[in-house]
From TrEMBL:
Membrane topology note: Multi-pass membrane protein
Family listed: Belongs to the binding-protein-dependent transport system permease family. LivHM subfamily.
Listed name of the protein: Amino acid/amide ABC transporter membrane protein 1, HAAT family
Location of the protein in the cell: Cell membrane
InterPro entries for this protein: ABC_transp_permease, BCAA_transport_permease
UniProt keyword annotations, A-Z: Amino-acid transport, Cell membrane, Membrane, Transmembrane, Transmembrane helix, Transport
CDD domains, per the entry: TM_PBP1_LivH_like
Molecular function GO terms recorded: transmembrane transporter activity
GO BP annotations listed: amino acid transport
GO cellular component, one term: plasma membrane
């Protein structure tokens, strides 16, 4: 009985881990794409920024929560600089923004490789572990799904309960009309890009204690982030949660039975099927209902 219980919890634990990874990796990308129409290929580098700053600050003796907060702030500041120097001049030029953010990604990776070396020794995973039957589980990783849901709840509050949220939603619906009514849409775009970059930095900060940090670590996040955004649709608040749940369930099942490679292939096939059946993503089902 204990063996069956531990096996079931192992599946639930793995699902929660995949769900959290997909949500946290995709949120920043979904915010920038959904609100600004910019496909940010440098998303992985914002994640890497958050991870590096977290580890450097943690090794300097700062408490882990403070180190993570500084990682988020550093990524958000980097987002402000990139938006003002590059992205601001490429609105309504989708392919140019794709090339520009791809160039930023390559430059950042090679610069970090020269400055920090091929890898950075990570931090120890906090909170220890617990056991059920023959399986051992990380307490920190078990908390990540709750953190992901909490971040989604904070985003909902930000967009529907604050002045910024009203301005942001008005800009999304009709930027020219919002500008005519007195909104400073350029400032809204800057804050939005900073928000997306900060969310990416949060993903890197949260996963910094769980993995080896290298200049190319963002590549592992960005593939799953794009898959989650494609499946969920541009509406970050409506589409991300169900998309991550569906993809997490599929990845957990396929990985458990057939291995990591088949799990990744399953994610890509799911994205293809969703694009064919629901071009606007699964979020469009909930949007229609509302």
């Amino acid at each position: 009985m204990m063996a069956i219980l531990s096996l079931l919890y192992s599946m639930v634990y793995q699902f929660g881990n995949n769900f959290a990874y997909l949500v946290l990796a995709a949120l920043g990308l979904a915010v920038i794409f959904g609100m600004m129409g910019v496909i940010n290929l440098a998303h992985g580098e914002f994640i890497m920024c958050g991870a590096y700053v977290t580890i450097i600050c943690g090794k300097a003796g700062l408490p882990l929560p403070i180190a993570m907060l500084l990682g988020v702030v550093a990524a958000a500041i980097a987002g402000v600089l990139i938006e003002r120097l590059v992205i601001r001049h490429l609105y309504d030029r989708l392919f140019d923004s794709v090339v520009a953010t791809w160039a930023i990604s390559l430059i950042t990776q090679q610069s970090m490789l020269l400055i920090a070396g091929p890898s950075l020794e990570g931090l120890s995973t906090p909170f220890g572990s617990f056991s059920i039957g023959i399986y051992s589980f990380s307490v920190y990783r078990a908390l990540l799904p709750l953190i992901a849901i909490g971040v989604l709840a904070l985003l909902y509050w930000l967009f529907f309960r604050t002045n910024y949220g009203v301005c942001a939603r008005a800009t999304i619906q009709n930027a020219r009309m919002a500008s005519c009514l007195g909104l400073q849409t350029n400032r809204v775009y800057t804050l939005t890009f900073a928000l997306g970059a900060g969310l990416a930095g949060l993903a890197g900060a949260l996963y910094a204690p769980t993995m080896t940090v290298v200049p190319t670590m963002g590549n592992g996040f960005i593939v799953q982030a794009f898959v989650a955004v494609v499946v969920g649709g541009a509406n970050v608040l409506v589409g991300t949660l169900p998309a991550a749940a569906i993809l997490g369930f599929i990845q957990t099942g396929l990985t458990s039975w057939y291995g990591q490679l088949i799990g990744q292939i399953g994610l890509l096939l799911t994205a293809i099927i969703v694009i064919r059946l629901l071009p606007q993503g699964v979020g469009s089902l909930f949007s229609k209902g509302r």
